[in-house]
Each structure stands twice: as structure tokens, then as C-alpha cells.
Write a structure and sequence with these properties.
The protein is mainly alpha-helical. The chain has helices at about 5-25, 35-40, 45-75, 85-90, 90-95, 100-110, 115-120, 130-155, 160-165, 170-180, 185-200, 200-205, 220-225, 230-260. The longest helix is centred in the first third of the chain and has 34 residues, at about 45-75.
Amino acid sequence: MKPNMFRVAMFLCLAFILIFFLCIFVSPTIFTGPWQLASAFLSDEARFAVFLSISTATCSTVISLIIGIPVAYALSRLEFRGKTIIEGFLDIPVAVPPIALGVMLLIFFARNPLGSFINERVIKFVFEVPGIILAQLAVISVLTIKVLKESFDGIPPRFEMVARTFGYTELESFLYVTLPAAKRGILGAALLSWARALGEFGATVMLAGATRFKTETLSIALYLNLAAADLESVAALSCILLLTACISQILVRKLLYRGFAA
């Protein structure tokens, strides 16, 4: 039997891309030994960066979910004039580089009268930790909304209509019928957004700056140590980000595509 050349070509392409990324992912360990890597893992700087990244990513993800759930539900269920334009407008941040978003945020808070008032009188974002959360939120909010909208789109509206016939209000139908049905999508959106926020760099460095032991997230610590040619710390921080990304992606695929075990 002649081999199916099309299938052979597909598997060769798959093998190539897997080997390509595997070589990239294991490359940080080339520059350091296990003891140096462990020492970099346990350094004060790495612990500070991990704690700051986890805390800010968690805050931005929670805020993104609070805003994203009603927005995604409205885009999924409501029909109104200009809906297509609004959906297209919300896709713009996906095409804009994060560093450009950070520059826009910096200009808003530094030059715009309203932004300057907020930054000086309400809460300081420029070169401060709240700026990290805001920058992460600007990057991940659209991702959160898109995943949540797809989840709500997959829930038949008739479920809510049946609940309404039993005397539930529109809000109660949403809270007691739609949200539980969308729990996998919500958890998947949270994990994706959290992982993206954890590794965010461009918008963060523009708005919050890159100050050691102040606004030093994992990605910023990676940048600072690379500039200082500290390859042990670079390798350790790269491994942390890679491990986090792998775990989060595995969980997302289980939640969104395989579901919970019965």
C-alpha cells in the first residue's frame, strides 16, 4: 500500500513545529546548571517578582471578569443598532501592540486633564503598582470578553425562556441558569486572562515603569536581568513563565474542550 503523502506531509509539519518550539523552550537551561538555577529561583528578586505578578494578575483578572461577564452576555443575547461596529471596535486592542496601549495610557494620565486629575487626586497609576493592574486589564479585557461571548453563544436562549415561564426575572434567569451553564467558559476565560496578564510586558513597562522591587513583575524582571547579562536569573524567570503557561493551557483545554469529569 502506498503511503498517503498528504498525511506524511502533515505529520512532518507537525513534527517540525513541535521540535522548533521544544528547542526554544529548553534553551534557557543551556546557560546555567541546576544549582545556579535553583539559587536564582530562591532569590529575593525572583520571589518578589512572582508575588507581584501573581497578585496583580489575579486582581486584573477579577476586574476583567466583573466587567466582561455582563458585556459578553449583552453582546451574545441583545440585538441593537451598531452592535457589529461595537464588536469590531472591541477587537482593535487585539491588533494594537501592547506597548502602544501602554504609551496611550501613559499619555492619557500624563497629558490629558482628566487623566492627570485621576492620577494625582484619585489613584496614582504612573510608575506605581496600580498601573500594572490597569495595563494588564487593558490587554486582557478583550480576550476575556471574546471567550465569555463564545461561551454564552453556546448556551441556548430557550433555557432562559423556560426559566422565565416559571416566574424567574431576567436577572434571576441569568444568575441561576445561564451563569451555572457557562461555568466552564468562565473558568477558562479566567485562566487564559490570568496567564496572559502574568506574562504581560509592553503596556506594563510603559505605564508602570521597570523599577526593581517596586514594579518588577516576572516579565520586567526578565527584561532587567537580561539587560544586566544575569543569565541564571533570566533562565529561572523564563522557566517560571513557561511552567505557568503550560499548566494554565492544560487546564484551559480541559475546561473548554473536554469538560469536567462526570
